[in-house]
Amino acid sequence: MKYRDLNASTRTIMTPGPVEAEPRVLRAMATPILGQFDPEFTHMMNETMEMIRELFQTKNHWAFPVDGTSRAGIEAVLASMIEPGDRVLIPIYGRFGHLLTEIAERYGAEIYNIETEWGTVFDPEEVIREIDRVQPKIVAMVHGETSTGRMQPLQEIGGACRERDVFFVVDAVASIGGVDVKVDEWHIDAAIGGTQKCLSVPSGMAPITFNSRVEALLLERKKIEQGLAEPGSNKKAQPRVIRTNYFDLSQLMDYWSPARLNHHTEATSMLYALREGLRIVLEEGLEHRFARHSLHEQALVQGIEAMGLELYGDPSCKLPVVTCITIPEGIDGESVRAMLLNDFDIEIASSFGPLKGKIWRIGTMGYSCRKKNVLHVLGALEAVLLRHKAKIAAGRAVQAALDVYEANEHR
Amino acid sequence: MKYRDLNASTRTIMTPGPVEAEPRVLRAMATPILGQFDPEFTHMMNETMEMIRELFQTKNHWAFPVDGTSRAGIEAVLASMIEPGDRVLIPIYGRFGHLLTEIAERYGAEIYNIETEWGTVFDPEEVIREIDRVQPKIVAMVHGETSTGRMQPLQEIGGACRERDVFFVVDAVASIGGVDVKVDEWHIDAAIGGTQKCLSVPSGMAPITFNSRVEALLLERKKIEQGLAEPGSNKKAQPRVIRTNYFDLSQLMDYWSPARLNHHTEATSMLYALREGLRIVLEEGLEHRFARHSLHEQALVQGIEAMGLELYGDPSCKLPVVTCITIPEGIDGESVRAMLLNDFDIEIASSFGPLKGKIWRIGTMGYSCRKKNVLHVLGALEAVLLRHKAKIAAGRAVQAALDVYEANEHR
């Protein structure tokens, strides 16, 4: 046979995603298939909805995964909410604000962007002033911007949106499951999470939630799928029809409700995986989980600084689950990454656009966010940098991280 | 813990999909994650492309999965090819022709439908006459229509499309891997397959292929994603831009090429699954695989007829991997299905629209298509029908199937 048995190396994955999947999640995926309308399976679908609500800290009824990668969830929300000509305000502080813009634009939005320097975030007041100026239908923002490792405070902006009856859509792909995402308290109307980051479930599903304000909008645009509607019932034109079938949330609502109106065929094994990943999150407890992410971030940051490397970006708005490091003068960042991968089986990330070749990004997310990995990456990075003749302090990084762990045990 | 350990019943799944996944595929999904740009992973992506080419019997360069369920593949092809106002001819002979119509309509196509009675297919000459009348840019057709269990001959229509420089798009979701789908020989420009049917890979990916004619169209509509383009390079407007980001095949081409331009995060575990499923298909060999599907279909059909049940639809265009049975007068089809599931752990399907409550559909697809399952479903269906006081011949169904298997062994 030309194609060999699957035999992937066991990597230590310290990127901002995809990260190592939870072993229990991997085992869950090996479970035999159930039919999509098998009562055992639809029961699991309902349980998954409940757990997604807890994950997003929301009482919203609508909470389910979209069958595609994270950006499929983003596109489903934007495509279903945006009608051609709608004003959409998107403040950009990194690559993924550009992605929100790209998607909204393709669905015919009239886009209003404001940008701030990469490595920082917006003063909420600045965004609110722009909302008052533009009077958009929707404000869409990234919560955790992995390209720069920054996190935007959302509560004030959410409150301002709600007061003004503006929809607030949040890309929480990178933050969900690693830090607080308080959908209800922050007045977020629709939020999108990612699986392959702090949930440690493989890429391929995007949990989303939206509230009754969004539901009302979707119902105005609803059209039953041709071939499923009762004869004659669907004949009147729907001029506001959502311009995609796969991402039509009004149809997905029927699929994720007792009607179980056929749409796609739910991705069985990925649903098993997401369900198991959510069980693990809720067993650990959100507060404990966020504290764990914070602890390992501290250990990593102390180690990096003890080595004499410089962190990138404004520390006051650092995304706790991604640590960005300025590549030292004269060091080839890609050569360092290659040696980490080839000699140490460790993957860390580079970045995009203006930051390409300027920073490394190390994720501490989900199952990858653990002591073994942090100590391994610090030791290996030191060794590789010494091999590249970087001027760093030898022997200090792992010690600094161990200090953090010891101090934590004695608390 | 409120949510219990995953513990799905082991069902015998004899629907037209999703069917039982290959055990080797399930095990492959439990393999630890690799990063999306890890050379080990991109090598697997390339191998998967090669195997998809063999599956579709094509020399096309472009052959890769779309990360979503089967209809995601269909939407990716139609969304990327259709521009508002394009004439698209869609002959309908069951539910999934309506789905093609629904999707094409949402992307602004000017739709031309012809319909034929459910349970039959089109005389190719009729379709070709309509092509000459409508002069469409695209003809889109379903190859294997699971809702009615029919299969449309495509070669003549494909030839006619090519002569007239019309694009021919084929939904081969139900047929791929179970019967011949000869993309090149039949002059198909773009084809979409499904994973959860004859490939016996869980739902969640859609292998597609398209030729250089389609590629040329896509390149005319290409726009690099905002936030990835070199500064300034992307400033000129692209009036023909594809109206979706997630399903933009021109961007997916960059992701599935040595450029590896970042788009979505490839669904790692599903890619492992698809790769393993394709290995199994190619190890078995397409010819042997189709012969196996045909053998078990024969055994099932002989058994059903020996019981005294009536097959639904025109036998001359029966889809070999789906067998439709007319529900006998006075029998509650849903009650029979429920008893099969609850007492025998067997799932068979009902159908849609005008056929709802009128027929049962039994799939013989992929890993589910084996002697054990065929004998089990025949025995169980007989027992359940007797329990429902149906007038059937007792004791004959399994014997008739065994006769088919014995005759085959002696050949």
Tell how many strands the DSSP assignment of chain A holds. Answer: 14
CATH class of the largest domain in chain A: Alpha Beta
Quaternary state reads homodimer
Average pLDDT of chain A, rounded to a whole number, is 96
Instruction: Label the CATH architecture of the largest domain in chain A.
Output: 3-Layer(aba) Sandwich
Secondary structure layout:
2 copies of one chain form a homodimer.
Chain A: E1 12-13, H1 23-29, H2 39-55, E2 62-66, H3 70-81, E3 87-92, H4 95-106, E4 110-115, H5 124-134, E5 138-142, E6 144-145, E7 150-151, H6 155-163, E8 167-172, E9 190-193, E10 206-210, H7 212-220, H8 249-255, H9 268-284, H10 286-306, E11 310-311, E12 322-326, H11 333-344, E13 346-347, E14 359-363, H12 371-387, H13 397-409
Helix pairs in contact in A: 1-9, 2-9, 5-6, 10-12, 10-13, 11-12, 12-13
